[in-house]
Design brief:
By secondary structure, the chain is of the alpha+beta class. Helices cover 32% and strands 21% of the residues. It has 2 domains: 226 residues, Nucleotidyltransferase, domain 5, CATH 3.30.420.40; 220 residues, Nucleotidyltransferase, domain 5. The chain is built from 15 helices and 21 strands. Strands 1, 2, 3, 6, 12, 13 and 14 form a 7-stranded mixed beta sheet that branches. The model has no long low-confidence stretch (mean pLDDT 94).
C-alpha cells in the first residue's frame, strides 16, 4: 500500500483534510463549513469542540482507506487565534474571533509603558490591530475577564492547540508567534519585555519540522504528527522550495492581496507600518516582509456599482476579455489624472465612489477600474521590495491569476522581472506537508510554470 501524508487546512470558512502521495499530488480530500457559535458577548466565533470532532472522525475515516496508508499529519491554520489551558490541560475561556471589537484606547496603557504606540509597533513589526494582535487578547483578558485569567496555566496558538488535541504535546511555533501577535520583539529576536512582565505563559518554542506520535486513543497505527504552521507563512513554502534561494516576491490574491518578500534583510520602518506593511517570521527564523490591499473585496464592491449602472447580471466581469487597447487607454487616462475610482478602501457599497461618463461601455469601465486597482496593488508590492536586491521572479497565486488585466499590468510594470503563475493549489496545505516529509520521500515538487507577458506602453506611472 502506498504511503501518504494528511494535512488539515483550517480556514475561517472552509475546513479541509487533504491527502498527498509521495509525489505530493493530491489523492484524496474532505471539506466542510461548520456553523459558528457565540462567545460570552454574543460575538460569532469558531466552535472548537465541533471542529475537533470533525477532524478526528475525518482522520479516522481516511486511516481506514484501502488505497493508501497515512504515515504523517500536519496542520495549517489561520492566525491571530489563541487557546488557553488550565493546569489539568483543559481549555478555559472563549476562543475569540480576531475580528471582535474592543476599545482601541484600552491598549494605550500598555503601549505607553513601552515608549508609545509607534515604538511598540516598530519593535513588534505590526500595525495596531486590536485582537488581530493576538497577544493583546491575553492583556485584555487579564483586565476584563479576571476569573478566566486566573485559571490560565499556558496559552497555545491555534495550530499547536490542534497538535495538542492529537498528541497531548505542548509546543509553540515561531511562525504563529511571528505573525502580528505583538508578542515578539523583532529587534532583539525574542519575546517582548511586556510578555514576561505581564506573566504570560507559552510552551517551549519548537521547530516546525518536529513531529510527535499520535495519541493511541485516536489511532493505534504508527502516525507522526507535526506541530502545525501559520497559514500565510505555510503558503509561501512551496515557492521557497522551488526558488532554491533566489529572491522572489509572492502576490497571493483573494479577498486580500497579500504580498510577501521572504528575502527581506532590513528593518520594518514606521512609514511601512503606516502603509499596512508588517513582518512575519519564517520557519527558519528569518523575516518575511508583507504588505496587503483588500483587492478582492474592493473589486467586488465596485463591480456591484458597475452592474447596477449597466443593469447586467452578477458575475458579468467573468465574461469580459482582456483588451490591450482598452488597457492602454485606461493607463493614459491615469497618467492624465483621470481616475474613476475615488475611494480605494471601499469595503461596502455605501463607501464606493466611482465616476461614470456618457461614453463608457461596460468593457471600458471595467478595464479602467481593474487597472486602477492593480496600480494600487503595485504600490503595495513596491513597499516590500528592497533596492539592493535583484528579484528573479514575481509569482501570482490565487483567484486573480484568472484576471488577465491584473496579471498583464503587473508584468508590464515589472518588465525587468519574470512574472509567472504556478499550477499549485492549496499552497497552505502543501507548505504544511513539506514540513513533515519523511526522509525516504522524494523532496521534488512538480508543477507547471506559466509566464505572463506584459504589453508595451509609453509610461508606467502608478501615482
Amino acid at each position: 500500500m502506498k504511503e501518504a501524508i494528511a494535512v488539515f487546512d483550517i480556514g475561517k470558512t472552509n475546513k479541509k483534510l487533504l491527502v498527498y502521495d509521495q509525489q505530493l499530488q493530491l489523492i484524496d480530500h474532505k471539506e466542510i463549513n461548520l456553523r459558528e457559535i457565540a462567545d460570552e458577548d454574543g460575538f460569532p466565533t469558531e466552535d472548537l469542540d465541533l471542529l475537533v470532532i470533525w477532524m478526528v472522525s475525518s482522520l479516522v475515516e481516511k486511516l481506514q482507506s484501502p488505497d493508501y496508508k497515512i504515515i504523517a499529519l500536519n496542520f495549517s491554520c489561520y492566525g491571530a487565534s489563541i487557546v488557553h489551558l488550565d493546569k489539568q490541560g483543559n481549555r478555559v475561556g472563549s476562543f475569540y474571533n480576531y475580528l471582535k471589537n474592543t476599545s482601541p484606547e484600552f491598549y494605550h496603557q500598555l503601549y505607553n509603558q513601552y515608549g508609545g504606540v509607534d515604538l511598540f509597533s516598530e519593535k513588534t513589526a505590526s500595525p495596531v490591530l486590536q485582537f488581530l494582535n493576538s497577544g493583546l487578547q491575553l492583556y485584555w483578558l487579564k483586565h476584563h475577564r479576571k476569573n478566566i485569567w486566573e485559571q490560565i496555566n499556558t496559552t497555545l496558538h491555534f495550530p499547536q492547540y490542534l497538535h495538542y488535541k492529537f498528541t497531548r504535546n505542548l509546543a509553540t511555533d515561531i511562525t504563529s508567534v511571528g505573525c502580528h501577535t505583538s508578542l515578539w520583539d523583532f529587534q532583539k529576536d525574542d519575546y517582548h519585555d511586556w510578555v514576561g512582565k505581564e506573566e504570560l505563559s507559552f510552551p517551549p518554542m519548537t521547530s516546525n519540522y518536529h513531529v510527535e506520535d499520535v495519541e493511541p486513543e485516536i489511532s493505534q497505527q504508527s502516525l507522526k504528527v507535526g506541530i502545525g504552521i501559520h497559514d500565510s507563512t505555510s503558503s509561501i513554502q512551496p515557492y521557497m522550495h522551488l526558488s532554491q534561494g533566489k529572491p522572489f516576491i509572492l502576490i497571493s490574491t483573494g479577498t486580500w492581496a497579500i504580498n510577501m518578500n521572504p528575502s527581506f534583510k532590513g528593518e520594518l520602518t514606521l512609514n511601512q507600518l503606516e502603509n499596512d506593511c508588517l513582518s512575519n517570521i519564517n520557519t527558519d527564523g528569518s523575516k518575511i516582509l508583507s504588505s496587503r490591499f483588500m483587492l478582492g473585496r474592493v473589486h467586488d464592491v465596485y463591480c456591484e456599482s458597475i452592474r447596477k449602472h449597466f443593469n447586467v447580471k452578477e458575475g458579468f466581469f467573468k465574461y469580459i476579455h482582456f483588451d490591450e487597447e482598452l488597457t492602454k487607454e485606461a493607463w493614459r487616462k491615469v497618467d492624465n489624472g483621470e481616475r474613476i475610482i475615488q475611494n480605494y478602501k471601499a469595503y461596502s457599497e455605501e463607501e464606493a465612489v466611482i465616476h461614470f461618463s456618457a461614453n463608457d461601455t461596460i468593457d471600458s469601465i471595467y478595464h479602467q477600474m481593474m487597472l486602477e486597482l492593480t496600480l494600487i496593488e503595485i504600490e503595495q508590492v513596491k513597499e516590500i521590495m528592497e533596492d539592493a536586491i535583484t528579484y528573479e521572479k514575481i509569482y501570482i497565486s490565487g483567484g486573480f491569476t484568472r484576471n488577465k488585466i491584473f496579471c498583464k499590468t503587473i508584468a508590464t510594470y515589472f518588465n525587468d522581472i519574470k512574472v509567472s503563475t504556478l499550477s499549485l493549489e492549496n499552497t497552505s496545505a502543501l507548505g504544511a506537508a513539506l514540513m513533515i516529509l519523511p526522509d525516504h520521500w522524494d523532496k521534488q515538487l512538480n508543477c507547471e510554470e506559466h509566464d505572463i507577458k506584459g504589453f508595451k506602453i509609453d509610461t508606467v506611472n502608478t501615482v
